[in-house]
């Protein structure tokens, strides 16, 4: 691996079997840049980040670690690629799924994150001791060790740890708590804290704002704006992109064939600027395609028509022989030259023409059907004095048949718990929950898990809906899963594609009460916007729990700030504290 103070990829390509993820990708992130990585679900954003985190500068590029978006059991050799990667010596990756074992403790995870820092500190101490010999080599060794220690900020490790835990909202969780005992959102925040605590020179972040509330997002924005080194992050968070990104890098396979060298492009500015430029780029592409097709038709006609004048299939008549002898040969030569010129222009244009703009994967909206229940018959769900021990406390809430309710609040305030109670998936410890007879609810959960990762989206769709409904309303007709992905193993799809499938399974048989937990997490920027617009016209009740600031700014329905969770009967957990010295860190 070539080390550098910037991050770069040149001619990078990656395939899984016969499936091309991307090709001839070129990207440079300077030390003072924060580039947002955007693109449709399944376009290869997570793959690119993993390659940049672990790919060597050899050809072929080695396979990244297995995980979401990779074939089951994938590893080195399951994919293949080429290209050159340059990155800082210490480059850190935040993945969407935290790589912790259930038995790992909070203290162990944080101490493991400081392993490099501890090693740099020891190296500096050893180099300082070696300077006693007075040699230039020892002095140079100490200078290098000091520079590395300063870049890693080794002397403020404990203070930075405490500030990170506090800023990300997990300071109150004790160090002995195991990862299997904390929520998925808390695991994600510990993964982010551990990465930032390492203080790598280069940062690669995959959906870093998932599971973060407003305060934590603001804290992360401040951290990244002050980061000394290249930052490349994939994000669905439109407000975060506007607030942090110095530029956007669009990984768009649909762009291949537009006449450019790569299926990717850099857009200056934030997400709002990108939307305008993206529309303008699409319009230019469509105009160029139309102009080239018109020119191709003209050239083909000209070649065919002119060739008929040269090869007319008869000799000259007697009256023409004299003129033909002197002028015919010259005319034929001129016509033949025009034919050759037209044929050359035609061959060049056929070879270099831009591909027809592919229709983007566009959400077809909520299928028609009977979603709403009679409004005159009363509320769909009524909650009174509901308590879920340590997680939720709510006095009264009624969900009407045409409700549009946005639930907001900090992490741990009980938003997901409230949706689970409304869906009937979680029983309240106290209070009453009354549901209308015949009520059908559907919920899009934050974390999607499919029990059979080897099954295809089309198979799962037919299992849930039944074969008859699946034939009447084909999966690919919803605009959520591309036809090329409909028969792949669901475990090989990206996190975003899996969430698209989960959305399809709900809306294909639209419920009377549609519950969505952080609906824009993991979804592409385009789909998130399309889904928001579709929900505004949903002929039933909609309840959304979301941190998404962009969604909240556009929300026109009612809002419910989620109440503080009901206190547990046991005493409050002690805040984070250092582990006992004799306790080794969990690797």
Poorly predicted ranges: 55-77, 256-263, 567-587
Q: Provide the helix percentage.
A: 25-40%
What name goes with the CATH superfamily of the largest domain? Answer: P-loop containing nucleotide triphosphate hydrolases
Q: Would you give the CATH topology of the largest domain? A: Rossmann fold
Report the radius of gyration as a whole number of Å: 30 Å
* Biggest sheet: strand arrangement: 6-7-8-4-9-10
Q: What is the CATH C level class of the largest domain, in words?
A: Alpha Beta
> What is the tally of beta strands?
18
Shape, per Cα inertia axes: flat
CATH architecture of the largest domain: 3-Layer(aba) Sandwich
The total count of helices amounts to 16
Largest sheet: 6 strands, mixed
N- to C-terminal distance = 25 Å
Structural class: alpha/beta
Textual characterization of the structure:
With 587 residues, this protein is α/β, with parallel strands linked by helices. The protein folds into 3 domains: 1-89 and 201-299, Rossmann fold (3-Layer(aba) Sandwich), CATH 3.40.50; 99-182, no CATH class; 375-561, P-loop containing nucleotide triphosphate hydrolases (Rossmann fold), CATH 3.40.50. 38% of the residues lie in helices and 18% in strands. It is built from 16 helices and 18 strands. Strands 6-7-8-4-9-10 form a 6-stranded mixed beta sheet, with helices on both faces. β2 (7-16) and β3 form a beta hairpin. α5 (157-167) packs antiparallel against α6 (184-198). The relative contact order is 0.13.
């Amino acid at each position: 691996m070539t080390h550098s103070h910037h991050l770069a990829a040149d001619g990078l390509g990656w395939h899984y079997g016969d499936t091309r993820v991307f090709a001839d990708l070129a990207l440079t992130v300077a030390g003072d840049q924060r580039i947002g990585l955007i693109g449709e679900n399944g376009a290869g954003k997570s793959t690119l980040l993993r390659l940049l985190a672990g790919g060597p500068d050899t050809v072929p590029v080695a396979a990244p670690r297995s995980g979401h978006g990779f074939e089951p059991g994938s590893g080195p050799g399951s994919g293949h690629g080429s290209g050159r990667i340059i990155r800082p010596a210490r480059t850190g990756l935040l993945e969407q799924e935290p790589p912790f074992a259930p038995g790992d403790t909070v203290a162990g995870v944080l101490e493991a994150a400081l392993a490099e820092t501890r090693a740099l500190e020891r190296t500096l101490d050893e180099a300082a001791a070696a300077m006693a010999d007075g040699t230039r080599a020892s002095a140079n060794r100490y200078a290098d060790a000091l520079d590395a220690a300063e870049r890693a900020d080794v002397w403020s490790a404990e203070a930075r740890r405490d500030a990170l835990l506090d800023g990300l909202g997990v300071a109150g969780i004790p160090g002995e708590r195991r990862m299997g005992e904390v929520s998925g959102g808390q695991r994600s925040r510990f993964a982010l804290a551990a990465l930032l605590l390492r203080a790598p020179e280069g940062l690669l972040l995959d959906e870093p704002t998932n599971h973060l509330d407003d305060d934590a997002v603001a804290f992360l924005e401040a951290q990244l704006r002050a980061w000394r080194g290249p930052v490349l992050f994939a994000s669905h968070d439109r407000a975060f992109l506007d607030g942090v990104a110095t530029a956007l890098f669009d990984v768009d396979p649909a762009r291949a064939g537009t006449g450019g060298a790569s299926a990717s492009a850099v857009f200056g500015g934030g997400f709002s600027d990108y939307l305008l430029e993206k529309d303008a780029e699409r319009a230019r592409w469509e105009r160029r395609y139309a102009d080239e097709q018109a020119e191709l038709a003209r050239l083909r006609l000209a070649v065919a028509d002119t060739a008929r004048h040269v090869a007319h299939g008869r000799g000259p008549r007697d009256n023409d022989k004299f003129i033909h002898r002197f002028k015919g040969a010259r005319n034929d030569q001129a016509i033949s030259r025009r034919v050759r010129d037209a044929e050359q222009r035609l061959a060049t244009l056929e070879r270099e023409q831009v591909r027809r703009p592919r229709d983007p994967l566009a959400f077809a909206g909520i299928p028609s059907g009977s979603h709403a229940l009679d409004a005159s018959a009363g509320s769909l769900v009524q909650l009174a004095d509901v308590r879920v021990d340590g997680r939720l406390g709510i006095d009264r809430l009624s969900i009407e048949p045409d409700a549009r309710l946005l639930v907001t609040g900090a992490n741990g305030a009980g938003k997901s718990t409230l949706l689970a109670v409304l869906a009937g998936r979680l029983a309240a410890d106290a209070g009453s929950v009354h549901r209308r007879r015949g009520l059908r609810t559907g919920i899009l959960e934050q974390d999607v898990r499919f029990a059979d990762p080897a099954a295809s989206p089309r198979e799962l769709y037919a299992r849930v809906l039944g074969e008859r409904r699946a034939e009447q309303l084909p999966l690919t007709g919803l605009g959520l899963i591309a036809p090329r992905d409909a028969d792949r193993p669901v475990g090989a799809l990206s996190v975003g594609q899996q969430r698209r499938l989960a959305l399809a399974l709900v809306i294909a048989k639209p419920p009377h009460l549609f519950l969505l937990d952080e609906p824009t997490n993991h979804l592409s920027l385009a789909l998130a916007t399309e889904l928001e617009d579709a929900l505004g016209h949903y002929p039933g009740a909609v309840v959304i729990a979301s941190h998404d600031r962009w969604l909240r700014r556009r929300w026109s329905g009612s809002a419910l700030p989620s109440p503080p969770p009901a206190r547990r009967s046991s005493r409050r957990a002690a805040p984070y504290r250092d582990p006992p010295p004799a306790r080794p860190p969990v690797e």
